[in-house]
Design brief:
α2 packs antiparallel against α3, α4 packs parallel to α5 and α4 packs across α10. The chain has one domain: von Willebrand factor, type A domain (Rossmann fold), CATH 3.40.50. The protein has 10 helices and 8 strands. By secondary structure, it is of the alpha/beta class. Helices cover about 45% and strands about 20% of the residues.
C-alpha cells in the first residue's frame, strides 16, 4: 500500500510538471504578425490558374488563415495601381475570412483599385499595418509579375523593412510559356480572354526585395505546384536575418510620416465604399 501511494504520487508529480511545461511553452511562443499582400491587378484575372490567379491565391490563404496558430495575427492588403488595407492586424479568423471574401467579390482592378501594379504602395501599406507591433513581424507578398507604377521609390519600403527587421517573403505565380489572359473589356465590364505568350518575369529583379530584406522568394509556374506547397512553412519559420552585404539607408522620418498619413487617409476612404 505504501509503495502504491508513492508510485501514485510520483506519477501525479510528473503529470503536473508536464502540464506546467506545456503551459510555459505555450506562453513563451512569440507573437507572429504577418501582413498578407495580394495583387489584384488586371493580369491576376488570367484564367491559367483556376478560377483565376487572384482567387487561386485567396483560396490558398483561406486555408492558411483557417489553420493559423493562436499566436499568429494577420493583416490583409490588396493592391493594383495603388493599395488598400482591407483588414487591420487581427487574430480573429472570422474577420480575416470576411476580408478575403470581400477581396474576392467586391474589390477589383476596376473599383476601387486603379489600373497598374505598384509594389511600393502595397509594401508601404503592409509596413503601415505592422507599425509599432511587438513580436516577429513579416510580410508575405503575392504577385504574378513585375511592378508597372512607382508610387514611391522601391528603396523606401525596402529600407524601412530592413530598419525594422521585417523580412518580405515574395511569392510569384505565373505560367512559364503561355497565359490565358484578359485582352479586352466590353461596355458591360466583361473580360475577353486569349491564349498569349506569357510575360517573362525578371526573376533576378523579382528576387531583390526578399533578398535585401532577409526574406524568401518562390515562383510557381503551375497551379499544382502552388497548391501543394505549404505556405505555413514560410510563415512559421520566418526569422529575420539581415543579409551580410545589406546596409540600409534610412529614409527621412518626415517622408515616412507623410507617406503613412497618405496611406492612412486612403485606407479610411474604403470604409465609405464598403462599411
Amino acid at each position: 500500500m505504501k509503495y502504491s501511494l508513492l508510485l501514485l504520487s510520483a506519477v501525479l508529480l510528473l503529470s503536473c510538471r508536464k502540464t506546467e511545461n506545456k503551459l510555459v511553452q505555450k506562453e513563451e511562443l512569440p507573437s507572429q504578425n504577418i501582413a498578407l499582400v495580394i495583387d489584384k491587378s488586371l493580369s491576376m484575372y488570367s484564367i491559367d490558374f483556376k478560377p483565376n490567379r487572384s482567387e487561386a491565391v485567396l483560396n490558398v490563404l483561406k486555408n492558411v488563415i483557417s489553420s493559423k496558430k493562436d499566436n499568429q495575427a494577420f493583416s490583409i492588403v490588396v493592391f493594383a495601381g495603388d493599395s488598400y488595407l482591407i483588414c487591420p492586424l487581427t487574430k480573429n479568423k472570422q474577420e480575416l475570412l470576411t476580408a478575403i471574401d470581400k477581396a474576392t467579390k467586391q474589390i477589383t482592378y476596376l473599383r476601387p483599385l486603379k489600373l497598374g501594379t505598384s509594389f511600393s504602395h502595397a509594401l508601404m501599406n503592409a509596413l503601415y499595418s505592422l507599425k509599432g507591433r511587438k513580436g516577429q513581424n513579416s510580410i508575405l507578398f503575392f504577385s504574378d509579375g513585375n511592378t508597372t507604377i512607382d508610387s514611391y521609390p522601391i528603396n523606401i519600403p525596402i529600407n524601412e523593412a530592413v530598419s525594422n527587421h521585417i523580412p518580405i517573403n515574395s511569392i510569384v505565380i505565373t505560367p512559364k510559356d503561355f497565359a490565358v489572359s484578359p485582352v479586352r473589356l466590353d461596355l458591360n465590364n466583361n473580360l475577353g480572354f486569349e491564349k498569349i505568350k506569357a510575360i517573362h518575369v525578371d526573376t533576378i529583379k523579382a528576387k531583390q526585395i526578399p533578398f535585401k530584406t532577409g526574406g524568401i522568394f518562390k515562383i510557381f509556374y503551375t497551379q499544382k505546384d502552388f497548391d501543394q506547397f505549404d505556405l505555413k512553412k514560410i510563415i512559421d519559420n520566418t526569422n529575420y536575418q539581415l543579409p551580410a552585404n545589406e546596409n540600409p539607408v534610412k529614409t527621412d522620418p518626415k517622408d515616412i510620416i507623410n507617406i503613412y498619413l497618405e496611406i492612412e487617409k486612403r485606407n479610411d476612404s474604403i470604409t465609405k465604399l464598403y462599411p
